[in-house]
Automatic annotation (TrEMBL):
The keyword Transport does not apply. PROSITE patterns: PPIC_PPIASE_1, PPIC_PPIASE_2. Residues 162-270 form the PpiC domain. It comes from Thiocapsa imhoffii. This is peptidylprolyl isomerase. The keyword Isomerase applies.
Amino acid sequence: MCNRIDNDMALELNLSTPSSDHSQEADDDLFSYHMHRVVTARFGCHLEELSGRQLSEAARQAELNIDLENQVLASPAALGVVILPRHVSLAIADLNACYPDRDAFMTALGRDGLTIDALASGLRRQLVYDVVLERVAADHAPVEAADEWAEYQAHPERYSDPERRLARHLLVTSRVLESSPAGAEKSSTWLAELAAALGEAGRIESQQFDDLARRYSDDRATAVAGGLLGVVDRGRLPPELDLVLFSLREGVVSQPVITARGTHLLYCERVYPACLRAFSEVRAAIRNRLIEQRRCEHVQRWLASLTTTGH
């Protein structure tokens, strides 16, 4: 759906270069195209829905975008770039696919003052712009093995596995506790058994917690596995549980934790400390990061040079 366009829509496209008699109309169409892009990307609405301040901001950004696009398209790097009508048609089809049908698409364009021809003309320029920047980016400085190692040494936090915990929990829901005396009796029973299991050391074996969870936990999805939550990264659990779990030592059961679901006991079965991954494991990711970084930096320098040279 994203790579096709209705034949009748294709026949409506006029991709020829406008004559001088229509230069003002072409300028207006280009401005409408860039306003549509800015309003959609920045505000997520239609032109008519903007406040006066937002409209001024959008107009300033559209003018800046047009100025930059003009400089890129007039640069030597744009020489020889050819965008065929079918490339524009495919781009329009991709946009059309974001709407329920063609009528909805055309209505959305009309609300921002765009015709299909104005859209096609703007997209053609955008495609040239994208090709030029891709050409420029491809000329970035090469990434050497020494660069990869330096990145690994300088930013170990980017290439480390975070601290994780193998966790279990036992839950008695608020509904059970409040519904009958049996609920309160159930709570006191497993708390008594837990206290006996902990003894004075404050620690418990995983099999003991497994048995308690199977017998008393109201979270049936985990109770059948002895309350097992699995290996948990920081931030995965609700904040009140996460904070408690990552304060526990290995083999220790938490104090009761109250949440909207009820009363929880958390058990930290094993601690997996944060650790730096082997260079060989992350080398490809490092290389990709550095290449993308150098591509962006090279494009930014090139764009800055256009403003200083007047191209």
